[in-house]
Amino acid sequence: MKKSQLRISLLMVMLVAVTMLSGCNKNEYVKGTIKENEYESKYLNLSFTAPEGFSLLTEDVLDQYVQFSSDIIYKDKDQTVIDYAKAVAVYEMMCVENATNSANVNIVVENLLGVERTEDEYIELAKQQLQSTGIDYTFGGTIKNVELAGEKYTVIDCIGNYYGQELLQQMYVRNIGDRMVVLTVTYTEDTVESKDALLDGFSALK
After folding, report:
1. Model pTM?
2. CA torsion sign, 27 to 28 to 34 to 37?
3. What is the pLDDT of residues 62-109, one digit of tens each?
4. Domain 3-203 has CATH 3.40.1000.10
5. Is 92:3 a contact under the CB 8 Å cutoff?
6. CB atoms closer than 10 angstroms to residue 160
7. What is the 3-state secondary structure (H, E, C) of the chain?
8. Neighbouring residues of 189: CB distance < 8 A, sequence distance ≥ 6
9. Tens of pLDDT along 147-173?
10. Closest CA to 180 of 85, 115, 125, 109
11. What is the overall mean pLDDT for the chain?
């Protein structure tokens, strides 16, 4: 298997594992928008501009990463419409570099379905889910009140070893009402500068 395929496979396993944590919706959630290389979310008070050499995946591609239940999908003038507010997990954005073994960043917003969890509790459950995938993981300690684009997150570093390929990740976790926001940047020892450029692409709307 090619290294680029391994990287994507590992990333997808990590994403699926993290979004298996949910156990009713109180606050109205509105999914952010993607226009070419710009992302914006009023709900998250967050905007993102893709750095040079990077590109944002389209909303249609992101929707393929989650199997939405049939009760939140309907037709409107022959177009498929998804009621994201009722979804358990929504992939808000993903930005990738136009090269193999490159850094990338994504945001997942998960509906906690009425289960009250702190950011620390969510991270511990995420660690358990990641370890259950059979991939060799090691985790660093959590750091609280890390500021990114004007908002504070709880951050954890982790390393996943998959078929001999080692990927580094920083997971930024933030609770908003009945949702948990997980911003994950994935990189290697050789792509630290790309990781930093991705994080610098975020800014506050307000």
Report:
1. 0.83
2. negative
3. 888 776 665 666 555 555 678 888 888 899 999 998 776 789 999 999
4. yes
5. no
6. 20
7. CCHHHHHHHHHHHHHHHHCCCCCCCCCCCCCCEEECCEEEECCCCEEEECCCCEEECCHHHHHCCCCCCHHHEEEECCEEEECHHHCCEEEEEEEEECCCCCCEEEEEEEECCCCCCCHHHHHHHHHHHHHCCCCEEEEEEEEEEEEECCEEEEEEEEEEEECCEEEEEEEEEEEECCEEEEEEEEECHHHHHHHHHHHHCEECCC
8. 166, 168
9. 999 999 999 999 999 788 888 999 999
10. 109
11. 84
Q: What is the pLDDT of residues 1-11, one digit of tens each?
A: 455 444 544 55
Kindly list the domain boundaries of the chain, sorted by start residue: 3-203
